[in-house]
Amino acid sequence: MVPVSFPAGFGAPLGFAGEELVLLKSNAIYWPKERALLVADLHLEKGSWYAQQGQMLPPYDSRETLERIADAVKVTGARRVITLGDNFHDDAGTHRLDPYAAGMLESLTRALDWVWITGNHDEQMARAFGAEVAEEMELNGIILRHEAKPGETRAELSGHYHPKMRLRVRNRHIARPCGVISRSPYTGDRMIAPAFGAYTGGMDAAAPEIMRALSPANAIDAVMPAKGKLVSFPLYRSAA
What we know:
Blueprint: E1 11-16, E2 19-24, E3 29-31, E4 36-39, H1 46-52, H2 61-76, E5 80-83, H3 93-96, H4 99-111, E6 113-117, E7 132-134, E8 136-139, E9 142-145, E10 155-158, E11 163-169, E12 172-177, E13 179-183, E14 190-192, E15 203-204, H5 208-213, E16 219-226, E17 229-237
Helix pairs in contact: 2-4
């Protein structure tokens, strides 16, 4: 494993499918051995899409999301970025990037080995900014795709569902992005990554849609980093 040294609280180690990953506080996943940063559901230009529908939101979500990717690359030393789909909120979003955000993205794709895995929002990406585009890919035996495939028996990392864990902290109810991991002795580990984009919403981590997507499994847990450690919340346990 490539040694990893992050600032305190930046992320938490995560064992997955025989690999050592790091679940970052920023909601990215870092794969030290591959020097790869994995990010799901950027939904770039979501703000401008809503503006077209008459709902005005601050138009800076793409800049914020790309700045967060750049920060994560700087801290981790990543040499690759692999997205997990829904990179733009719609296929035409590539044309709505303002010049500043487009320049940021072009700089990132020039400096890094960048792969766009497409999702249901951007199946026909109009522009790749010099990066590779794929429907899915396999890396060291782990399938990287946008949406978890029910019944998948191989190790799998995906996005799509934007899972969030609802917690009670200091007498307040809060929701935090999280990953959701299923484990079974009969299939590979499978994980739905937290959404990374600035304007992404969320689905309850225990929602039936997520449970179905990760079945069959002996155990399903929500996971998130806290003070440099991985915190797990059991969501499902098999009766068998």
